[in-house]
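During the no-cost extension, the postdoctoral fellow (Dr. R.K.) reprocessed legacy sequence entries with the updated structure-token encoder. One reprocessed record is reproduced below for audit purposes.
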Amino acid sequence: MTKHDELELKKLACRARMNILTATHAAKAGHPGGSLSSTEVFTYLYFREMNVNPKNPKEEGRDRFVLSKGHSAPGLYSVLAMRGFFPEEDLLTLRQANSYLQGHPNMNLVPGVDMSTGSLGQGISAACGMALGAKCKEQELRIYTLLGDGELEEGEVWEAAMFAAHHKLDNLCVLVDCNGLQIDGPVNEVMNPNPVDEKFRAFGFFVQTISGHSFEALEEAFSAAREEKGRPSAILLKTTKGKGVSYMENSVGWHGKAPNDAEYEQGMAELCAALAELEAETV
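Re-encoded structure tokens follow.
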């Protein structure tokens, strides 16, 4: 990855964070914390990694993405809009009555959404089905799914992991947003899933642990996952909940709460300053 490419991705991620803040502020509801911790991986997937076509969202040969932690929909919506799947101004309708952008993704309403999700643990199972289906059809496409580390408390996740390894789904890439916090508090206090890396290895996965906020690390990890044959991949993303907005960072209270007017202004000021710094680097 060139420095120019990395800088452009950083600017896109900053814009996506602005959209997340704007959408949740307008809705007066939503889940900004986990959306902000996942912004880089959303950005990298849709602007660099995945074969998708905004002009034909249902194209048969496309790669698929399943947001298993469906409550982070504001992050996914922001990047889908920026990628051209639907107008960015529609983000202002998040969670409003009659809006197609509801609190959790709906594959029947939102262009670019491949699976309706929200009940934790189910998304990875759907992704496994997609991956096996692609194998049966001999389709050269990849399936990606993003889970939260708190979601790993769901037993269905490990049933799916066993299924994926049994069927040698090397076209499946499981991403885990390891930000350390869930709605009730620190993950390791609510129901400690660690060591996550050893668990996925025991289930037969090729496992990598990286910074979820580094585009260089994401590029290397996705490249290695594509080269791995005969077993599924898991990329564990070490992240900061609420990343990019100072008062949200590492604060469990921002799991599912929207910013008020003053908080929105502060957050947008911080993100605007960060974007200005990135623009200055471009010059």
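The chain has a mean pLDDT of 97. The domain at 3-282 is CATH 3.40.50.970 (Rossmann fold). The remaining legacy entries will be reprocessed before the final report is submitted.
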